[in-house]
Amino acid sequence: MPSFDLSGLRKLLPTGVLLDVASVVDRVDELLPEERVLVESAVESRRNEFSSARCLARKLLAELGHAEQALLPAADRSPVWPQGVLGSLSHGRRYCAATVAALDSSARPQLLGLGVDLEDIRSLRTALFTELLTQRELKQLNPADSQEQQAQQVLAAFSIKEAVYKAMSPINNDGLAFHDVEIRFLPKPSSGSDLKTAKVIGLDGLRHRLPTHPRIHAYQLTQNQSFLSVVTISQTP
Predict the structure, then answer these.
(1) Is residue 182 part of a domain?
(2) I want to staple 229 with a disulfide (CB 3.0 to 4.6 A). Which of 37, 161, 163, 192 is the partner?
(3) Residue 36 domain-assigned?
(4) pLDDT tens column, 59-89
(5) Which pLDDT value is given to residue 191?
(6) Residue 193 DSSP symbol
């Protein structure tokens, strides 16, 4: 399958944040025993997604200097990362993504949350639009666009919201909902660019969970019929 060009996106991420994408294939044999038992009775697609994402994450953790260890799920199914590490995983049918960073209390601003989401670009039922977007976001949809075009805009915003949810995991995402966050995409730097930035607007449900003086950055890469979204949350002194 075609690879992702992550060079532009990586340049925008804070120093020390590692990001990579890989194809979803059968890598169950490379799982550690504690991980393998979690998917041994799952369907093939689930085994492939789980094993590919775990192996990709382990590669990035090795780059941070961490020894090989099992990445087991927490109660909310998110991976339990090694102490001192922020991380996030995601997968679609064809690709998986992972991002990790070492916690550094001396960094200014201090990175508190890191989230990644990878979505296959696909059609959405119009009934989902109101579930995923706020009324203000719905009003930004162009009524002249086709249902397919509108669905892609909704999916793009949804992907950023999913990355926000994951980035909030080490802070507090308990009960955080789609309508607690609004996404406004900023103009692309050039007409042919496949990389966008977005403003994340925290409504009451997100705002009260954030630390003081938060900085949220959101980026989205559109390649290979996929949306790859990364969100970082940091705190200024």
Answers:
(1) yes
(2) 163
(3) yes
(4) 999 999 999 999 999 888 889 999 999 999 9
(5) 65
(6) -
